[in-house]
Amino acid sequence: MYHHSDLKRFYYCPRLFWSVNREPREAFRRYVRMDRPISDCLIEKLKIENAFTAVQGIDCAVVLRAMDSHDWILKGRYEADGLRVKIPALHKTSEGWDVYFTYMGTLPKADDVRFYANHCWVLTRNDITIANIFIVHFDGAYVRRGELDVNACLRVSDCFYKASGKPHINITDKVKDKIRDLKPALDAMFSVDAWEDYPITLEECPYSVKCDHYEKCFHNEKPLDDHSVVFLSQSSHRQEMIELGINRLSDIPLDMIEGTRVQFAQIMADRMGGLFADRFALTDWLARTLAGPISFLDFEWDTYALPPFEGMHPFDVLPFQYSLHVLENGVLRHMEFLGTQDCRLGFIENLLRELPHEGTIYAYNAMGAEAIRLRELAEMFPEYQVEIQDIIARMRDLAEPFIGGLVYDLKMRGNYSLKKIISAVNPDLSYSQLSIQHGMEAVYQYREMEDSEDEDDGRSKKELLEYCSMDTFAMVEIFRWLTELVGQNHLSKRNID
After folding, report:
1. For residues 469 and 477, is the Cβ–Cβ distance under 8 A?
2. Nearest by Cα to 83 from 110, 128, 39, 120
3. What is the pLDDT along the chain (497 residues), one digit of tens a residue?
4. C-alpha torsion angle, residues 447, 296, 425, 247 (rounded to 10)
């Protein structure tokens, strides 16, 4: 029996489907925090009565029988030709059954129509007449005032929306039009799944290392060299190069590259022994560092579907932690904050107190992360808007020299994440020594700490603080490395250890 995630994976890559299906199923963890079961929210929003609620592992025949004596079916499981799906809610009407899907967002778009159509195909295979299809989603305009109002927080839509927020097309018409017979795909899945082995070569792989599961398919092959064309960024000809036997970045013909600055940096790094640095451009970039202390800042946050506190919207983000390293007169200081519950005010007040009032503030992906969080806090706490705007005005993105092609080390292997860059710059500074090694792991640990009955969970706090501190210290190391590349030795490593 397969689930829709298996079908989606098979369409993406049959080899990936085959491989993942032989691994233990990982426990499902939500990226977005949902502190109340969505089925409970549906009951309140749709005023559901006389409902049968299915449970995990239930025999689908039981659900079908329950449809004879109930007006509503919640979390119903249905199967057809080996595909098992879960439908959030079905409602009996004179014309058949109205189908209610849930959408973890504020504007359901037609991009997801295949998902809904595939689920409805299973219903039709069970001779269930579909009347209308609705999507229950969150109202982005809702602001929590006092107690949570689930009815006002959720909306029921009969249409998909454009990105602008304007209604686009009727859901029922669009989904019914996209229903297709899935049996041929399911038969192929059963056939592929029965294979004892699924050999594949790099030339046959349509995604190369852009697929996160590259190692699952090619773990038996010789590891790729750092100069492999597989790591060429922003390339539409990567697969063609592999098929033509072009292996090294330095061997790529000019007519097979798009000519971006990043590609130029990668090719030149291979030609120059592993490292390329446009020292003139890098010197100019560093020269824009403001006078005064140099700060390095990193936030951790969680996203809530249902706004948990006053003044929050659906899917608002709550920063719960920051790490701050400050370099001043050759001395490195470190400050940090880790809050619980509604820690927004404490977060911003501590940050304003500890952050220097002058000098550049570096963050990694600053404008796409920390600056956004600060703007949200300024909206929530207008009394601090001026101070917060000053912080944003002094922020710079430490990723710019890398994603802009000013510098490239072959050891980065086409990856411009903070963790990959610090492993190239300073291999001794590794996240592998930490209990928490990724941002979402920090979020999950924070959730567990908040839900724990142990009010003084010292281990979790220590691990969260260590992880966030590593992020800002890694930025310090990267900044030091950049300055040494252009000969600014007044920031030598011995001054900041």
Report:
1. no
2. 120
3. 999 999 999 998 898 899 888 888 777 778 899 999 999 999 999 999 999 999 999 999 999 999 999 999 999 999 999 999 999 999 999 999 999 999 999 999 999 999 999 999 999 999 999 999 999 999 999 999 999 999 999 999 999 999 999 999 999 999 999 999 999 999 999 999 999 999 887 777 766 555 667 766 776 667 889 999 989 998 888 888 988 999 999 999 999 999 999 999 999 999 999 999 999 999 999 999 999 999 999 999 999 999 999 999 999 999 999 999 999 998 999 999 999 999 999 999 999 999 999 999 999 999 999 999 999 999 999 999 999 999 999 999 999 999 999 999 999 999 999 999 999 999 988 888 888 888 889 999 998 888 876 655 688 899 999 999 999 999 999 999 999 999 875 444 434 44
4. 70
Radius of gyration of the chain (CA): 26
Burial class of residue 86, CB neighbours in 10 A (0-12, 13-18, 19+): middle
3-state secondary structure of 290: coil
In degrees and rounded to multiples of 5, residue 327 shows phi and psi of -105, 115
* Contact (CB, 8 A) for 172 and 133: yes
Which of 365, 355, 364 has the alpha carbon at shortest distance from 333?
355
Structure token digits, residue 407: 């510098």
Place of tokens 């900041």: 496
Domain 260-497 in this protein, CATH class: alpha beta
Q: Which two tokens stand for residue 418?
A: 């903070």
260-497 has the same fold as 2-187: no
Report domain extents, the chain. Answer: 2-187, 201-250, 260-497
Q: Are β-strands 130-138 and 96-102 bridged in parallel, bridged antiparallel, or unpaired?
A: parallel
Q: How far apart are CA 137 and CA 156, in angstroms?
A: 6
Mode of pairing for the β-strands spanning 2-3 and 83-93: parallel
| CA proximity to 89, closest of 106, 104, 71 | 71
Q: Which CATH number among 3.90.320, 3.90.25, 3.60.21, 3.40.50 corresponds to the domain 2-187?
A: 3.90.320
